[in-house]
Amino acid sequence: MNSPSVLLVISSLRGGGAEKVIIKIANYLSSLAVSVTIVIFEPLLSPVSSPYWIDPRVTLLSAPPSCNSFLSRIYFIRTLLLSEPFTSVLAFMPTTNFVVLLSGLFLNISIYVSERNDPLFVGKPFLYSLFRLMLYPLASKVIVQTRYIEHVLNKMFVLNTMIIPNSVSVPQIQARSFSASPHAPTLVSVGSLTPQKNFFVLIESMRFVLQVENSVQLILLGNGPLRLHLENFALDIGVAGNVCFRGRVDDVTDYLSAADIYVHPSSYEGFPNALLEAMAVGVPCIASQKAGHMLIDHGVDGELLQKCTAHSLSSSILRLLMNPSRRKMYSTAAIQKALTFSDDLVLPRWRRLLVG
Asked: How far is the C-alpha of 294 from the C-alpha of 89, rounded, in Å?
């Protein structure tokens, strides 16, 4: 009997949340002696060029440069499916999902696709909705991370959905100190420097925070096309001395462990890995409603802002900095919440889905 073989398809391994999840799945399955192949549509010289560690037992395939169109990618994946006895296929992100589903037409293979962000904000709304309506019924299952996204897709008449949330490795927690006025309080936020992450609002909120507590430091972890604009904005409003751009950091645990508050102001999210990781190390968290509703119970294990403006964000930050007992309560409850999304609980669901 042949050992199970799984094909994972994603556009790139640049270092986003979806890439992190698919590599985590690949590494986990490989540890169980499952043959795993990852296909991407961008050049990858070696596993070390990925920002995440990839088990050497995982096979990495980069489509040739000629696969730069929708049709050429369909042909490439279909050729691969015809030549290799894959047990199942998993694709991430809408465009790749469409390619893989068309590649697998009339083949006797289980194909799973996954949406990794809020479908209402991804791609061209009418075109993507039409493709979902036409192609997603061909999938064995459409994997989503939250009931909210499942509801959005159900309204698009995509009914073959299954929820598997993101998972987190819960580290050993060092005891935290909670004081009314922590010395040089530190705020941390993690994410790509793109419009979705709403960092202009976070930086603007520092102007109001510093009027009350002038030693607060904001550390932003991530790179992206808006970096220069954000740096100039911080300079223009006079907060550049208190805002530090650290760029992309492969392991954010040390920064999160040292933070007094983690802030996640995104305009929308699928299931924010960074927020979950912050909760796992016990950082008191503040998030916009649209970014954190799937993880935070407001007033129990963190705070949600219905309207994430510079004023509302600064008010929430200052209230939390001045309330050590609430920060301690959020920290304890956040760790307990993160445990319900631990790798040990979530990853076996992927194995049961893809391998049986």
From this structure: 27
